[in-house]
Amino acid sequence: MRISNMLKVAIYGKGGIGKSTITSNLAAAFAAMGKRVIQIGCDPKADSTINLLGGEPLSPVMNYMREEDEEPEELDQIAKEGFGGVLCIETGGPTPGLGCAGRGIITALEKLEETGAYKTYQPDIVLYDVLGDVVCGGFSMPMRKGYADQVFIITSGENMAIHAGANIAMAVENFKNRGYASLGGISSAVRNFEDRSYARIFGLILNHRNVENETEKVQAFAEEKKIPIVGEIPRSDEIIRWEDQGKTVIEGDADSEISKRFFELAEKLLEDETERVR
């Protein structure tokens, strides 16, 4: 599967590291910049898009298929527009204890193609919010088959977050060896030959938890893996305050200092994509 003429970003990190907060604020930042955005939550918890939808959870694709006992035929059966027109989709997962969550993601992404999600909405940017504790099966899907051009790894200075980040970087390296993905820094080359799609790690985002020696630990990890730190999100009560109201900080106060961090990250991605296409 090859989605052309749009920026496609997969955002990985261990559970609870703040992927959904960062992804939804990035989506909101892009939307505020006038871009058409799709955000796809690839986590069985199905809570990636809730702060783009006023705090209202979205029924996932897999729930629709179970409850209706049929496959979705129209995009509006499994998607809803949120803040700034961001098209929100949650893949969901199987009935607990009765299936593989990774397989659920694969099925859901395939159904999105079949319903014409990308062709119908024609986004400028697609964001995949992916659980990164395991990088196998469906959880690795956005790295493969042209779903994503870029990979972000979210980490903090916590040991488990760094360990998960190392596993994700290893997965990208392994996929590179099979023609799927490659590691690299900003403005490194990306090539597509026939159906072989090369995604790359755009960089690390340090989501601060204020643990001891956090910055030094993440810098050491970045240097070891040769991955740039492209953004830092300070620990902020402001983010929590707006999320308690079912909003991203971009929607709540687009001029705040914390919002500027997300706009800067969005601008970096757009600049890099322009350079890559050139």
Quick summary of this structure?
The chain is α/β, with parallel strands linked by helices and 278 residues long. Helices cover 37% and strands 19% of the residues. The radius of gyration is 17 Å and the shape is globular.
Q: How would you describe this structure to a colleague?
A:
The structure is a single chain. By secondary structure, this protein is of the alpha/beta class. It has helices at residues 19-32, 61-68, 101-114, 117-121, 159-177, 214-225, 237-243, 249-252, 257-277; strands at 7-13, 37-42, 80-81, 87-90, 125-131, 150-155, 181-182, 192-193, 196-197, 199-207, 229-233. The strands form 2 sheets. Strands 1, 2, 3, 4, 5, 6, 7, 10 and 11 form a 9-stranded mixed β-sheet that branches. Helix 1 crosses helix 9 (257-277). The chain is globular. 49% of the residues are buried.
What is the average per-residue confidence, as pLDDT, rounded to a whole number?
A: 84
Q: What is the count of β-strands?
A: 11
Distance between the termini: 23 Å
Order of helices and strands: EHEHEEHHEEHEEEEHEHHH
Strand content: 15-25%
Low-confidence stretches: 182-196
Describe the main β-sheet briefly. Answer: 9 strands, mixed
Structural class: alpha/beta
- Rg over CA atoms: 17 Å
Sequence-ordered SSE layout with sheet pairings:
Layout: E1 7-13, H1 19-32, E2 37-42, H2 61-68, E3 80-81, E4 87-90, H3 101-114, H4 117-121, E5 125-131, E6 150-155, H5 159-177, E7 181-182, E8 192-193, E9 196-197, E10 199-207, H6 214-225, E11 229-233, H7 237-243, H8 249-252, H9 257-277
Parallel strand pairs: 1-5, 1-6, 2-4, 2-5, 6-10, 7-10, 10-11
Antiparallel strand pairs: 3-4, 8-9
Helix pairs in contact: 1-9
